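Replication-associated protein
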Amino acid sequence: MAKKILFGNFKGGVGKTTNSVMTAYELARKGHKTLVCDLDPQSNSTQLLRRTYGLQHNDELEINRTMMVAIQEENIRDSIVNIMDNLYLLPSYKDFVNYPDFLEMKFMPNAENFKEKRMAYFGELLKSVENQFEYIIFDVPPTLSIFTDTALYDTDFVIIVLQTQQRSLDGAEAFWEYLQEFYNNHESIDFDIAGVLPVLLKNNSGIDNQIIKDAKDVFGSNMLFNIIVRHMERLKRYDRLGISENGFTEKNDFHDIKLHGLYGRLTEEIIERTGGTNG
């Protein structure tokens, strides 16, 4: 059965999408069949993986059925697209903003346990395909919403992404508290917090070090990942052009080698923290 992992924070712009997609990419490179579920109407994960597909295949990724269409038709399977070996995407689109209204119509407020049914609905559809994958990665908006609750209701592990700035730390604390409240209020769910992933705004910055120290005080040293995602300009190019392994202008580009080496080690730690084994 697939291990399901959610990357989250209540502060936007902290690298949540980048790190969830990079982790999925590295899991696939290590031979683990992985599915990215883009549960964000802004569809940032979808856009990044579409660019990655275009970069690798020199062709445009064809998406005939968005996730919202798949949900309406109760057929997740036919909307899944292949990005590369072992990496698959359940794509989002701007029509996914209609998902809350769809749930409200399907499970009316006078229905028994309607809130639980709304949160559980996507996970029930996902069951038809989840056994085909070793890992499923959820990307969600940085907000308190049915999109986030849907993923939390179905996930096995949560990784809190912490960019080293005060507002991100505040958002991480608020997300942590919400996770505890959500877990306590729903008996049918069972997830663990795999850890807090520090993402540096700048390398060797005093404020970065102070935020990490504060995070250890707040969450406990054992909750922070040993691997820290350091500031790398190449990640910005990935967002714009897609994930590259051989450089944008020449083969064996050392920026790509360094970046994939970092995320390879991070992915190994994620596998360990989620109780898996490296292939």
